[in-house]
Specification:
There is one protein chain. This protein is of the alpha/beta class. The chain has one domain: Rossmann fold (3-Layer(aba) Sandwich), CATH 3.40.50.12710. It contains 15 helices and 16 strands. Strands 2, 3, 4, 5, 10, 14, 15 and 16 form an eight-stranded mixed beta sheet that branches. Strands 1, 6, 7, 8 and 9 form a five-stranded antiparallel beta sheet that branches. β11 and β12 form a beta hairpin. α9 packs parallel to α11. The protein is globular. The relative contact order is 0.14.
């Protein structure tokens, strides 16, 4: 049964479902969900670009920071390197390539853990890792526990299911997904859980009349799980988003929930309802909510900065100046760097949040250029 028909049948049987429940089915249904049916969804042939798609330099620079974190954690003989939403392992491969080339001692200590919900993507990981496959200590769909090292997630939280709300004259309403004459439609009703209003209060959000907004309770829950999985080390989250003060302001009165296919977004109202299982669905991350969730779990906020400043702090300019001796390869790396840094693109839309646990408050190399959120 097509996923759209399965969702419609569920609604007819049980009534409207939350947007979070709809997204969970559309993206993560084990047989028909968007992320379940292909080992890779990004890139030129996919529906969206990530920093990983522009070349290996992003992973190489992350390896520099992870190596420093290993040293700051006391040079453990085994450094757990845990990637969440690892897809088929491309970013992990780039990180390992960089570590092997630049820091053999760190590379020798790495025990790699790849966390990915898609069975198709997990099945491609060893082949993608290639010569690094022996570094894979575990792979599965949930975070391992007792981690000493680094947990990192690149563009995970934006794809977690969100609740969609709207402020009306008589109070906060939640947008649900209903069914009418065989079509999926957006309908309003009371909030499905008091946690929605509690979340908005925690982050200090005040919605104006008619304003739409997303509430990502799943992101809070994931950050809490990651914090509890970490015995000692660092949590690194890179994603696109804004602080709550801006995200829940009139600047985003129509919300940020969007769907993408072939690198184009559906501009129609509630376009995210179209073709469930065949389109990516995302929403901007509330950076304030993520930080507060981490700090409630006794993590220490060490950095919050634009991706541009993260990569410049890790020596991107110096790395480009060295060259490879291959003019074509050098040009490709310069173009990749431009994509990663350009204002208005990945450089400013993507933010890095870094937290520590039982490591004090060290000054990280990635903050050596500038600590700034724009």
């Amino acid at each position: 049964m097509p996923l759209r028909d399965l969702i419609a049948a569920r609604i007819r049987a049980r009534g409207p479902i939350t947007v979070a429940a709809f997204m969970d089915l559309a993206l993560y249904h084990p047989q028909s969900g968007y992320y379940a049916t292909a080992p890779q969804r990004s890139g030129q042939a996919g529906d969206f670009f990530t920093s990983v798609d522009v070349g290996s330099i992003f992973g190489e620079l992350l390896a520099v920071q992870f190596a420093e974190m290993w040293r700051l954690a006391g040079f453990p003989a085994r450094c757990d390197l845990v990637e969440a939403a690892a897809s088929n392992g491309r970013l992990a491969r780039d990180v390992l390539d960089g570590a092997q080339a630049d820091d053999p001692d760190f590379y020798a200590a790495i025990a790699l853990h790849l966390v990915e919900t898609s069975a198709a993507a997990r099945g491609a990981q060893r082949e993608t890792l290639g010569p690094h496959a022996a570094k894979l200590a575990s792979g599965g769909d949930s975070l391992p526990t007792g981690i000493t090292g680094v947990i990192f997630a690149n563009e995970l939280l934006d794809a977690l299911p969100v609740h969609l709300v709207v402020m009306r004259e008589d109070g906060l309403k939640e947008v649900h997904v209903g069914e009418r004459n065989g079509e999926l439609v957006a309908v309003e009703g009371p909030p499905s859980t008091p946690e929605i209003a509690a979340y908005l209060a925690r982050v200090g959000a005040t919605l104006g009349p008619g304003c739409l907004a997303e509430v990502n309770l799943a992101a809070e829950a994931w950050v809490a799980r990651a914090a509890r999985s970490l015995a000692k080390g660092f949590l690194v989250i890179i994603d696109y988003g804004r602080d709550a003060a801006e995200l829940y302001s009139g600047a985003h009165a129509n919300g940020t929930l969007r769907s993408f296919r072939h690198h184009a977004t559906d501009p129609a109202p509630a376009g995210w309802l179209a073709d469930p299982g065949e389109r990516d669905i995302t929403a901007h991350v509330d950076l304030t909510g993520v930080r507060l969730a981490a700090e409630r779990e006794n993590l220490v906020t060490l950095a919050a900065l634009d991706q541009t400043y993260l990569l410049l702090g890790l020596g991107l300019a110096d790395r480009l100046s060295r060259g490879t001796g291959d003019p074509v390869a050098d040009l490709k790396r310069r173009l990749a760097a431009k994509t990663l840094l350009v204002p208005g693109g990945m450089g400013s839309t993507h933010k890095a949040l870094i937290f520590g646990k039982n490591v004090g408050t060290p000054r990280l190399t990635c903050t050596s250029f500038k600590v700034r959120l724009t």
